[in-house]
Amino acid sequence: MKKAPATEAAKRQAQRQHTKAQSYEHRGDHKCHSTLDSYAERIEDIRTTLLAAGIELAHPDALGSYLSSAKDRVFRFATAGKPHHRNGWIIAYHDRGLPFVLLAGDWSTGAETKWVAGTADSLSQAEQRKLQRRLKEARQARESERACQWERTAAAAARIWHSCTPAEPNHPYLLGKNIKPFSAREQAGNLVLLLTDFTGKAWSLQTIDAAGNKRLMAGGQKTGHFIVVSGPYYPTRVLICEGFSTGCTLAELDPTALVLAAIDCFNLKTVATGARNRWPNADLIVCGDDDRLTLGNPGATAARAAALAARARLALPEWPPNAPLDLSDFNDLQNWMRGRQ
Known about the structure:
Structural class: alpha+beta
Radius of gyration: 24 Å
Number of strands: 14
Order of helices and strands: HHHHEEEEHEHEEEEEEHEHEHEH
Number of helices: 10
C-alpha cells in the first residue's frame, strides 16, 4: 500500500516501538510482539503503525473512540496535517472486544496502511480464511466510501465552478507566466481550474494563487482527469501536457489543437490512454516536461511512457545551447526565447 513520509516525531516513536519489540524477541518473550493480549497494547501498536505510515491523528487520545466508531464500517477523522477536515479514514474489525484487523489511510496524502493483531500468527486455517474475508470486506468498504467521497467532492466542485467568474488577464500568475486565461476562472483572487473527464463531468478543482501556489481540492479524484485548456471537442490533434501554464503556451502555439493539462507527470499516462480511446484517429502528442536537474528526469520519463502506451507522438522542449538548465517546460522555453528578442 502507498505510504506517505512520516513526520520526524512519528519516525522516532515508531523506531522506539520497533526497538522495544526487538528486545522482547531477543529475550524469547513474545507476549507484547506476538500476542498483544491487552486493549492498551493493541491501541499502542495501532498508533505506532499509523505514525510509521505517515497517518497522524489531530487528536491522538481519541484513537480508542475512533476504533469503536469504526467497527465494520469506514470512520473519518481529522489528521494533524489538516485538522479542520476529515481526510483520515479507518475501518476496524474486533474479536472478543479487541481490535483485530484494521485498514486506515489519509485521502489528502494518499497514505494507506494495514494492521493485524500479532495473534494472527497462531490462527488456524479456518481463522486465516476468516481474516482474509474481513480484510476483503474492509477494502470494499473503503473503496465504497472513497467513491462516495469523490462524488461529494465532484458535486461541490461543480457548484464552486459555476459560481466563479472568468479569470482576469491581469491576474499576477498569468502575467508572470505570460499566458492568457483561456479556460481559467477566478474567485477570491485565485485562479480556479476545472478537472473533468472525457464526458465533461466535473470531478475536482485546482486553484492557483497570486504567488503561484497550487492546490487540488481535498477529497477529489485526480487520476484520469484533466484541465481542458482550449480547443475543439472533436479534434484532429490533441496535445497533452502536465501543467496549466504549459497548456496555455501550447494553445497559443497551436490554436487548432485540443489541449489537455494532466496536472502532473504521474497522471500523463492515464490521460493519454483515455484520449486515445476517446479519439482513436486523432494525432495525439504528449508534450512532456524536461526535468533535467532532477534525478531520473521524471517529466521526460513519464512522457515517454505515456506516449508509448497511447500510441502517441512525443514532444520535449528543444533547448538552445545557451538555455539555462533550470528551464524545464514549453512555457519556460517560450518565455526565455521572448526575453532574448
